[in-house]
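Appendix C: a fully annotated inverse folding record. The material below is reproduced so that readers can follow the format used throughout the book. The structure is listed first as C-alpha cells, followed by the designed sequence.
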C-alpha cells in the first residue's frame, strides 16, 4: 500500500464515539481556531471511513449571504478528538528518484507541493525544477494558442491571460494591457484570453466565460470588445439578469446575435472553457489573473513587470 499524506491536526475535546460527533462543539472550535465569522454558516456532511487508516472523511460547507457555497474536505479521527481541514492524497514516485510526491485526486482539490523521502524521514516543501528543461518552452507545450485571441496572428510576442470576468484584479490587468502595454508595441503583441472562472466565489463568472467563448467562435476582435464590456460593467452585472446583459454586449460588439444566443443557450462553447480550465490546472495556475508572455510566467500584470519581459522576447525574436 502506498503511504498517504495529510497535515497537522487540531485538537477537539474527546468524544465517546465518532458516530456521536458533536457538530455544534466542532463548529464552535472551528470558529475559534480559524476565525470563521458568525455570519458564515457551516454544515458538516456525513463522515465516512477515509482511505487513510483510522480516519473518517467528509465535506464541510461554508455559506455566506450572497455568495455560492464553498466546500472544504475534512478528516476526523475515529474517537472524534482530532480534525484536519484537508483532503488526503496518495504518494507516488516523484520525478526525482528517491522521493515521493502527492498525486491529484478525483475530488478536484490540488495536491500540495511537497516531496517526501521514501523512508518517510524527511519532507521538502516545493516542486523540483529540472534544469534540463526550458520553463518557457515547457509552459508553451501545455497551451493551445492556435486560432485564438486578438492582434496580429504572426506577432512575435503572445500573452496568454488566464482570467475571470468577475475578478477585480483581472479587470485591472485587462485595462493595463489594453491602455499601457499594447500602445507601446503596435503590431508586436497578440493577446489570447484564457478562461479560468473562480466558480466558488464568483456566481456569474462561468456564464460569462461561456458567453465570451461563444463570441470567440465568431471573431477574436469582436470577442475582445465583448470582454471589454464585461469588465467595464463588472460591478453592475447580476447573475439573475446575466443573459440580457450578455445579449446587450453581443449587439454592441457587432456579433451575429442569433448565433450567439443559440451558442449561449446550448452552452456550445463549454468544451473550450473546460479545456482552458484544465490547461490552467496543468500549468499550476492558482489564481487570477495569471499571465504568460511567450510561455514566461509573469509575477504580476504591472507595466513595470511586463515591459522588460516583452523587450526580452522581442530581442530574442530579432536574433532568429
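Designed amino acids, in order:
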Amino acid at each position: 500500500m502506498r503511504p498517504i499524506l495529510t497535515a497537522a491536526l487540531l485538537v477537539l475535546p474527546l468524544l465517546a464515539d465518532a458516530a456521536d460527533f458533536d457538530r455544534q462543539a466542532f463548529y464552535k472550535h472551528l470558529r475559534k481556531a480559524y476565525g470563521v465569522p458568525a455570519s458564515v454558516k457551516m454544515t458538516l456532511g456525513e463522515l465516512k471511513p477515509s482511505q487513510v487508516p483510522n480516519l473518517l472523511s467528509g465535506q464541510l460547507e461554508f455559506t455566506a449571504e450572497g455568495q455560492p457555497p464553498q466546500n472544504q474536505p475534512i478528516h476526523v479521527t475515529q474517537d472524534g478528538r482530532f480534525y484536519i481541514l484537508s483532503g488526503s492524497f496518495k504518494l507516488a514516485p516523484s520525478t526525482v528518484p528517491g522521493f515521493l510526491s502527492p498525486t491529484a485526486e478525483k475530488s478536484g482539490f490540488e495536491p500540495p507541493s511537497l516531496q517526501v523521502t521514501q523512508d518517510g524521514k524527511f519532507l521538502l516543501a516545493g516542486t523540483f525544477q529540472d534544469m534540463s528543461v526550458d520553463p518557457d518552452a515547457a509552459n508553451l507545450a501545455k497551451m493551445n494558442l492556435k486560432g485564438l485571441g486578438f492582434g496580429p496572428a504572426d506577432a512575435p510576442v503572445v500573452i496568454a491571460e488566464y482570467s475571470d470576468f468577475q475578478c477585480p484584479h483581472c479587470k485591472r490587468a485587462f485595462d493595463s494591457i489594453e491602455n499601457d502595454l499594447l500602445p507601446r508595441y503596435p503590431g508586436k503583441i497578440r493577446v489570447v484570453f484564457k478562461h479560468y472562472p473562480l466558480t466558488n466565489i464568483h456566481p456569474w463568472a462561468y456564464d460569462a466565460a461561456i458567453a465570451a467563448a461563444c463570441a470567440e467562435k465568431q471573431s477574436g476582435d469582436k470577442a475582445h470588445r465583448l470582454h471589454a464590456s464585461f469588465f467595464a460593467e463588472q460591478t453592475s452585472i447580476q447573475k439573475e439578469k446575466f443573459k440580457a446583459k450578455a445579449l446587450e454586449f453581443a449587439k454592441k460588439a457587432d456579433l451575429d446575435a442569433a448565433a450567439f444566443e443559440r451558442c449561449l443557450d446550448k452552452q456550445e462553447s463549454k468544451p473550450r472553457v473546460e479545456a482552458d480550465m484544465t490547461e490552467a490546472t496543468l500549468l499550476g495556475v492558482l489564481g487570477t489573473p495569471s499571465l504568460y508572455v511567450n510561455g514566461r510566467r509573469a509575477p504580476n500584470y504591472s507595466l513595470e513587470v511586463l515591459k522588460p519581459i516583452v523587450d526580452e522576447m522581442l530581442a530574442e525574436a530579432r536574433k532568429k
